[in-house]
Structures are given as structure tokens and as C-alpha cells.
Write a structure and sequence with these properties.
Subcellular location: Membrane
Oligomer: single chain
GO cellular component, one term: membrane
Order of helices and strands: HH
Strand content: under 5%
Keywords: Coiled coil, Membrane, Protein transport, Transmembrane, Transmembrane helix, Transport
Largest sheet: none
Membrane topology: Single-pass type IV membrane protein
Radius of gyration: 40 Å
Family: Belongs to the syntaxin family.
Distance between the termini: 129 Å
Shape: rod-shaped
Length: 97
């Protein structure tokens, strides 16, 4: 065949060069694939870190909202107690009259 006659005309130096080029190409492809894997891993790590930050922000926000609600409830309870004390005092004063 035509291909086998071309191969037999090649010198050992040419064959060695083809082997070297093929090995270099395969190494380059392998390294490119590794870079893609690492890049994907890096993107996942960055996404994970972002999610951690967002979760921390949400936790901080939740804690602040809870603290604000607790403070508001204290104020409401204090007002209720004061109003109830006034009502009880008035009831006692009415009985004394």
C-alpha cells in the first residue's frame, strides 16, 4: 500500500522525531486536561467559599433579627406590665372609695 511504502522510506531520525512530537502532544493534552480538572475544582472551591460567606451573612442577619425581636418583645412586655399595674391600682383605689 501507499502508506506502508511511505513509512518504509522514513529514516530512523524522522521516526524518532514523530515519536517525540507525539509524546509531546500527548503530554500537552494530558496537562491541558489536568488544568481543566484543577480549574473546575478551583471554581467549585470558590463557589463553596462564597456559599460559606453567604451562610455566615445569613446567620448574622438571622441573629440580628432575633435579637431585635427579643428587645422589641421586652419593650412590649414592659409596657403591658405598666398598663396592667395602672389598671390594678385603679381597681384597688375604686374599692377603697
Amino acid at each position: 500500500s501507499h502508506l506502508s511504502s511511505e513509512v518504509s522510506k522514513m529514516t530512523d531520525t524522522e521516526r524518532d522525531q514523530i515519536d517525540n512530537d507525539a509524546q509531546m502532544y500527548m503530554r500537552t493534552c494530558h496537562n491541558s486536561i489536568k488544568l481543566l480538572k484543577n480549574e473546575g475544582t478551583l471554581h467549585l472551591c470558590l463557589l463553596f467559599l462564597h456559599l460559606i460567606v453567604v451562610c455566615e451573612q445569613l446567620n448574622t442577619h438571622r441573629d440580628n433579627v432575633i435579637e431585635m425581636l427579643e428587645e422589641y418583645l421586652k419593650v412590649v412586655c414592659k409596657l403591658y406590665s405598666e398598663q396592667r399595674a395602672i389598671r390594678v391600682k385603679r381597681a384597688v383605689d375604686k374599692k377603697r372609695m
